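Exercise 7. Predict the joint structure of the components listed below.
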Amino acid sequence: MCLAIPGLVETIFEKDGLRMSKINFAGIRRNACLEYTPEAKPGDYVLVHVGFALSIIDEHEALRALSAISAEEKSAELKFTGENE
Amino acid sequence: MKYLDEFRNEVQASILAERIKRATKHSWRIMEVCGGQTHTIMQYGLQDLLPAEIELLHGPGCPVCVTGLEVIDKAIAIASSKNVIFCSYGDMLRVPGSRSDLFDVKAAGGDVRIVYSPLDCLKIAAENPSKQVVFFAIGFETTAPANAMAVKQAKRTNLDNFYLLVSHVTVPPVIRGLMDFSDSRVQGFLGPGHVCSVMGWGQYEELSERYKIPIVVTGFEPVDILEGILKVVHQLETGKSFVENQYSRAVTKQGNAAAQAVLDEVFVVCDQHWRGLGLIPKSGYKLSPEYASHDADLVFSTNAEPIRESSICISGDILKGIRKPKDCPAFGRECTPEQPLGATMVSSEGTCAAYFRYGRLEICS
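Solution:
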């Protein structure tokens, strides 16, 4: 139930007094409400749950997490090579 | 899909699994709080990547599962009323009440509609001014802001025929309940990532300190879960206990202040009955008195009858992490996703339903 999906903010508009956005989920477009992420702008990725963007995805944090694992991969590969020598 | 595929990467997952194996020196029991996390663990077979010393316990974080039977019965009664359009997320429709479910109401001619967002219901209410439009507002802190905004918008636009049937639950009180339980087996938690995107991870510091237990706020993809487990194991093996944030791409310490402000405006904290667990003090939200005219619980009177749950079902013990689906004599026999007996089988995110779907019984036996 707490499923939330990242999507790309494409356009921002107002509807019935609410800040809304057209969000692109890998080619599928749906509207989502930006009242809880008013600072979101086109080009941002937001985490959408039941039609509401709950947070803006922090790209720096996402890359940092992945690169930390990759760094381990490189050192593991080196270790593996060393063990075979 | 960006921010999903990277976190489902097999190479990254295998590196993390290896690191968990290297880090694990003792036996540990770790509970993932969310049903969505349980689903990922089962779907990707993550338990099989872990050393035998790590046991994953599956927590109470499936709101469909824990919504009280009496609330389901009330929803069915309201949906059966004349002049009502009853709206819900799809996964609530097949949850059995005492005698029937919302699909039965629909089959019998009731106007029951599946919606994607509570905002869809506002449109339905505006288009059907002579009808009473009721939305079934269940879920954790992740879902509550959407429902809060919907009823706030209804009030602002004088949409008098829109109502919420509210049965929200919140995570920290149930963690407290699990830890206060004398037979608690939990030694570390994977915290609820999407709940914390709203409420912030700072809310969990008090719990971690009080119970001296590691809590790692964790995302929902396989790489997230494995990294969360690794962080919990590191803490356990070094005798530490604090709150860490694995899901930093979506969660901050403070959470979403705008959403929290609307929650405070629209809801008040209340005691809540959890299916399988019973009454937990201050573990839910209900509408504040200012929204009484939109509160389906007050506006619609229904005849509540005494409710009896199945005597065989062990879902309460499963939600507490004491027992597993394989311990239940009814699992996969009298109790299936089509004919569920209790909380953990009623939703696809429930532990029993996930075990059933992904065939974990044979592996665990």
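Discussion. The mean pLDDT of chain A is 86.
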